[in-house]
């Protein structure tokens, strides 16, 4: 009698198509990324493209690390926004500050990590690992933001999403005057109505310049309470089907790196459930590209299983959670190219324009809660 085949041998047979010069990147991922972290990257590509891009899913992306100075805003994030593949963003302030360099016509260059930093300092060259730029790039960007926040429309308390939206409007105008075509993430997010939040407004050169202007009487204040509630309202509206105009919807979080933006995005569910007492189960899709280990206890390495224990991720959806252990500068371009080749563009949801609507939903459900 023939031995019954184990259910654990039901996976695709490892017999890849030999790579040739005609193979596309998407085919390379599907046919050659068979095992180890290559397989996790394949799973990430398929989760993002096959499930997270469905019409009823609202996608939040978190950005940490120095991604924009490496050009990934231009090469990957902007194309994803234009394709309707990113609906809202939480970023470090640094990524948005360095993104602005490109939008106002300043230059960053590839460099050599072996050059002495003492020599670079003497030459007034600043480096981010192997990215070099002149010290004047910082001064010119600082001056741009200081002039910006002197405008009357900035003299109030606002969410970081409203602040970045206004910044994007001015960066976009500067691009037009300089003949630059959509090099700034802030500018493109403004055009497509993608709200951008920052989890730590004071932790960047943008926040430093806001603080400096306050010493001169400036009235701009970025209120983190607004950010906490607005981001929670986006997730609630997604899950209730308000965003997609369906009976119910889904929420997906695509995490690049980890850190504070990761938690700020994931804490939307505990804010809804634990703090506001609204009935919810957690995000539906969890996709992370990270090089952090989970065993150190750091947030950047925290697994989706751990997130379930906090109510951040729906336990029923853990099969739709992927962690790919690789550098975001490798993973993001590959996932972007795969998605753009395998999925048609989606209509932009323009969530920024609907913030008041989402906040009303959040308040209405909170009114019915026993936590009040």
Fill in the keyword field for this structure.
372 residues, Deoxyhypusine Synthase, six-stranded parallel beta sheet, three-stranded antiparallel beta sheet
Describe the structure.
This protein has 372 residues and is an alpha/beta fold. The protein contains 15 helices and 11 strands. The chain has helices spanning 25-32, 36-52, 72-82, 93-103, 117-122, 135-148, 160-178, 185-192, 205-215, 224-239, 259-266, 268-275, 304-309, 328-342, 355-367; strands at residues 57-63, 88-91, 109-110, 125-128, 131-134, 157-158, 196-198, 221-222, 250-256, 285-290, 321-325. The strands form 3 sheets. It has a 6-stranded parallel sheet, sandwiched between helices. It has a 3-stranded antiparallel sheet with strand order 3-5-4. A two-stranded parallel sheet has the order 6-8. α2 crosses α14, α7 (160-178) packs across α8 and α10 (224-239) crosses α12.
């Amino acid at each position: 009698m023939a031995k019954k085949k184990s259910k654990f041998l039901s996976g695709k047979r490892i017999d890849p198509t030999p790579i040739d010069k005609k193979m596309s990147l998407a085919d390379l991922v599907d046919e050659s990324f068979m095992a180890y972290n290559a397989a996790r990257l394949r799973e990430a590509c398929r989760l993002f493209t096959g499930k997270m891009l469905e019409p009823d899913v609202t996608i939040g992306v978190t950005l940490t690390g120095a991604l924009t100075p490496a050009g990934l805003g231009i090469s990957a994030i902007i194309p994803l926004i234009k394709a309707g593949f990113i609906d809202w963003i939480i970023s470090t302030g640094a990524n948005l500050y360095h993104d602005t360099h490109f939008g106002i016509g300043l230059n960053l260059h590839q460099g050599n990590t072996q050059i002495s930093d003492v020599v670079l300092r003497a030459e007034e060259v600043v480096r981010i690992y192997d990215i070099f730029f002149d010290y004047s790039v910082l001064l010119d960007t600082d001056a741009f933001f200081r002039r910006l926040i002197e405008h009357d429309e900035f003299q109030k308390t606002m969410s970081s999403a409203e602040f970045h939206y206004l910044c994007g409007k001015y960066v976009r105008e500067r691009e037009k005057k300089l003949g630059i075509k959509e090099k700034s993430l802030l500018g493109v997010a403004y055009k497509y109505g993608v709200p951008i939040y920052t989890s730590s407004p004071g932790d960047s050169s943008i926040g430093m310049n806001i603080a400096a202007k306050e010493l001169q009487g400036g009235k701009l204040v970025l209120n983190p309470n607004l950010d906490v509630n607005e981001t929670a309202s986006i997730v609630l509206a997604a899950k209730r089907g308000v965003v997609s105009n369906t009976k119910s919807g889904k929420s997906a979080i695509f995490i690049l790196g980890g850190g504070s933006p990761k938690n700020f995005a994931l804490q939307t569910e505990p804010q809804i459930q634990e703090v506001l007492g609204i009935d919810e189960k957690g995000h539906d899709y969890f996709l992370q590209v990270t090089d952090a280990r989970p065993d150190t206890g750091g947030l950047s390495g925290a697994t989706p299983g751990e997130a379930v224990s906090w109510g951040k991720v729906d336990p029923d959806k853990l099969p739709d959670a992927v962690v790919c252990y690789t550098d975001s500068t490798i993973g993001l371009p590959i996932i972007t190219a795969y998605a753009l080749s395998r999925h048609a563009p989606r209509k932009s949801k323009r969530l920024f324009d609907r913030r008041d609507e989402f906040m009303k939903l959040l308040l209405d459900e909170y009114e019915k809660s026993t936590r009040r």
